[in-house]
Design brief:
about 800 residues, mainly beta, Maltoporin, Chain A, 5-stranded mixed β-sheet, 41 strands, about 50% strand
Length: about 800
């Protein structure tokens, strides 16, 4: 066994434990120093042409006639990014709403329906997310994939419905992995250790190995494990306190095998596996039924930053397995590509719903006061199985006319369920409402669970798509494409328990249509390309869950109860742009206007403890985005990117009483996205080595995110004044908690320094240098009467990363 292979074999499972990560890092470093094989290319930030496959063909970013960003493996490593949220700092127009690992919401160019929560399984995503050729997006639960050994991450802005279908209205994000290589054995090990201010220590260990097995077979294996440092403290009964409750782990890997029996045929089967286990959520509370400044017979509590109140521990689990096969044939002038993909996901969201259940016990049920403190655990589970098949043919010859056609099929089964185990609850219900009341409303579900629901979904789709590219002149190029689609969705909604309606209903929805796209580009000269496009995107509609009538105040039931379904959402995007590259300076800029019809806006139905989606007839987003890079000197590279958006409703939706519904009024802002988002970064490469390194560099980046709102109604006058109307613990329920629901703008500063010694790279970094505590979204339980909180970001983090190539 070679020395580098021995280094790999010595860093296996024991290093996966956080307690021995420092020893692992030392082992990697000592092993690497002893070796002298290939040389890592010194890091010289430069303006280079990145090859992407955003049109399902290879092309450079500068050659594509629409707005796209690509973060390469080198960008990912130098920035220290470990998640899509980290990468978004340097991608204009890309917004990530962090609700915890595995629960982020993605928006591009301000196209947003607002916050989608865990119990809206029928809502479709507005941004498509792909792992290479396999679709992996799933409304709220977009997989938080590890970025190790990626070739690049592509962000395609604007509707991508022609090639990528439903869910790509705002755009598409694509994780592009490194494929097995026949060039020779190679590998990499990366170890990290970090510490979070007022939190725990975390770190990761990751490895990759590529091995040509024969002249026609090549294998690539990737494995990783990450320990997340907790930083949220949980207060509890009798003055107890648990520190850093939101820690967790992400582990997984992938294995791919490429077989090339001939020069014109290849097949690459692959398996990807990842599991996330979190012990809590990044939620900082400002009010809780059990913990607030107004109680007198219970201890009055005012929360500090990064604190919450729990009767039960919380958890999040996400286990994902993707198996896909890509086959490629080259038949002279025609290439054939087949992608078969199968995905299994099991997701568990386990929340402390004691305050929610307790609030209902007070009103409307008026149970004995002892019932209010019963621990109540809300379990949301999702079991997903999805099969997709795509076959496409594309031209492969020199000429002014090129084409691509394909068919796509998918069959998705999603089993979603909720349970609310609350031991001892039925006794209180029966004592108040009569013997056997709980059993009579159980509808076949378990005892002592006041709310239960099963939502099995089945979604089948078929599509035919194509694009043609042709050169009108040597400088003027056109692309025309379209997609015809047909969808069928069915679901059964069954509920039981004292909080439910005891529903049992079957709903079917269908949709079909055609989405076109026309693009043009003009080569002004060798440095500048002008482009324009008109494109349509779409998102499927669906069925709202019936409101939980037993929980609703009459006014909430009347206001939000008249929206049983919501229609498909469509968007026309109009865009012009310029891409310029002048050697040491590049500038890509685009201006766009998106006209949205039947926007699916998400609203909180207040006391009903439900969410509904309603169609807004007209809305728009408009703005400008830019990405500028400059090699100012041989040593200094600067990048500046940003977007300025206007995202507003163009029509007003009213309830049955003629009042504006949930802030959906002509001229009001769309939710979740900032009007201004800017990023400035710089890297200085030392021209003379320091600390005897072959290469050394320092970098800094600052990201500014403008103010936002979580839901459309948050911008209505008085929306931030909450009264629980729940007399409990000596509080009358008439006390007012006043919050500013406009989420303040914030800026995050990151610093990084690296040294390269032959095949060894070491970096030290500090993220969130100023320890900014940003409010990312508002979390309101039962309209705020049970709990009010904000999702928040990670505090200042200091870390070191060691990376060894061999």
């Amino acid at each position: 066994m070679s020395q580098s292979r021995k280094a790999l074999s010595g860093l296996q499972m024991p290093c996966f434990r956080k307690a021995v990560l420092p020893a692992c890092i030392a082992a990697v470093a000592s092993s690497a120093v002893a070796q002298d094989e290939t040389t890592v290319r010194p890091y010289r930030p430069a303006l280079e042409e990145v090859t992407v496959t955003a049109t399902k063909r290879e092309a450079t970013i500068q050659d594509l006639p629409f707005s796209i960003n690509a973060q390469t493996q080198e960008d990912i490593q130098r920035s220290g990014s470990t998640s899509l949220e980290d990468l978004s700092r340097n991608v204009a127009g890309l917004t990530i709403q962090n609700l915890g690992p595995g629960q982020s919401q993605v928006a591009i160019r301000g196209v947003s329906a607002g916050q989608i929560v865990r119990d809206q399984p029928g809502v479709k995503e507005q941004v498509g997310v792909y792992l290479d050729e396999s679709v992996i997006s799933l409304s709220l639960f977009t997989p938080d994939l590890d970025l190790f050994d990626l070739n690049r991450v592509e962000t395609l802005r604007g509707p991508q419905g022609t090639l990528f279908g439903s869910g790509s209205m705002g755009g598409t994000v694509r994780y592009i992995t490194n494929q097995p290589s026949f060039d020779g054995p190679e590998g990499m090990i990366e170890a990290n250790l970090n510490t979070v201010t007022d939190g725990e220590e975390g770190g990761h260990l990751k490895g990759m190995y590529n091995l040509p097995l024969t002249e026609t077979l090549a294998l690539r294996v990737v494995g990783y494990t990450t320990e997340y440092a907790g930083f949220i403290d949980a207060l509890g009964e009798n003055g107890s306190k648990k520190e850093d409750v939101n820690d967790g782990n992400r582990s997984g890997g992938r294995i791919a095998l490429t077989w090339e029996p001939t020069d014109n045929f290849s097949i690459t089967p692959r398996v990807v596996y990842q599991k996330i286990e979190m012990d809590g959520f990044n939620r900082q509370e400002v009010y809780n039924l059990y913990a607030n400044p107004y109680t007198t017979t219970r201890p009055a509590i005012t929360f500090d930053e990064r604190e919450q109140y729990l009767l039960l521990d919380e958890a999040f689990e996400d286990e994902t397995m993707i198996a896909d096969v890509v086959m490629e044939w080259s038949l002279g002038s025609v290439d054939i590509t087949s992608i078969s993909s199968y995905t299994e996901r099991e997701i568990l969201v386990s929340r402390d719903a004691s305050a929610l259940t307790g609030s209902i016990s007070i009103r409307p049920l008026d149970l004995d006061v002892a019932s209010v403190l019963l621990p109540s655990n809300l379990l949301d589970t999702t079991d997903l199985e999805q099969f997709t098949q795509e076959i496409r043919l594309s031209s492969d010859y020199d000429g002014a006319f090129q084409w691509l056609v394909g068919v796509f099929y998918s069959d998705t089964t999603r089993e979603y369920s909720q349970r609310l185990p609350t031991p001892g609850y039925d006794a209180f219900v029966d004592a108040k409402l009569g013997a056997n009341t709980s059993a009579s409303v159980a509808n076949g579900f378990p005892a002592d669970s006041p709310y239960n629901a099963d939502y099995p979904f089945d979604l089948e789709q078929f599509a035919v798509f194509g694009e043609v590219n042709f050169d009108i002149t040597e400088r003027l190029h056109m692309t025309v494409g379209g997609r015809w689609y047909d969808f069928e969705e069915s679901r059964r909604f069954t509920t039981g328990g004292i909080f439910s309606n005891q529903n049992d209903q079957v709903d079917d929805t269908t949709s079909d249509g055609f989405t076109p796209r026309v693009l043009a580009s003009y080569d002004l000269n060798d440095e500048v390309v002008l482009n324009a496009q008109v494109a349509q995107g779409f998102r499927l509609g669906g069925v709202n869950d019936p409101l939980n009538a037993p929980l609703c105040e009459p006014e909430d039931l009347a206001t939000y109860g008249g929206n049983p379904t919501y229609d498909d959402e469509t968007m026309w995007n109009y865009e012009v742009g310029m891409k310029g590259n002048w050697g040491d300076f590049s500038l890509n800029v685009a201006a766009f206007y998106a006209d949205i019809s039947d926007l699916q806006a998400t609203l909180d139905a207040g006391s009903c403890s439900s969410r509904v989606s309603v169609n807004v007839p007209d809305a728009h987003t408009a703005g400008i985005e830019f990405e500028l890079g400059s090699q100012l000197t041989d040593a200094l590279y600067l990048a500046f990117s940003g977007s300025v958006l206007e995202a507003e409703f163009d029509s007003t939706v009213r309830d049955v009483n003629g009042n504006v519904l949930g802030g959906i009024e002509d001229g009001n802002r769309l939710a979740s996205v900032p009007e201004v988002q800017l990023s400035l970064s710089g890297t200085y490469t030392f021209l003379k080595p320091i600390l005897r390194a072959d290469d050394s560099w320092v970098s800094a980046s600052v990201q500014y995110v403008g103010d936002r709102i979580t839901q459309p109604g948050d911008q209505v006058s008085g929306a931030g004044d909450f009264t629980s109307e729940l007399p409990y613990g000596g509080a009358t329920g008439d006390e007012v908690t006043s919050l500013d629901l406009e989420l303040d703008a914030y800026a995050i500063l990151n610093l990084n320094m690296g040294l390269i010694y032959d095949t060894l790279e070491m970096s030290v970094y500090m993220n969130n240098v100023t320890d900014e505590n940003a409010d990312l979204s508002l979390d309101r339980e039962r309209g705020g009467s049970a709990r009010l909180a904000f999702a928040t970001n990670q505090p200042r983090t200091l870390g070191v990363t060691v990376r060894k190539s061999f």
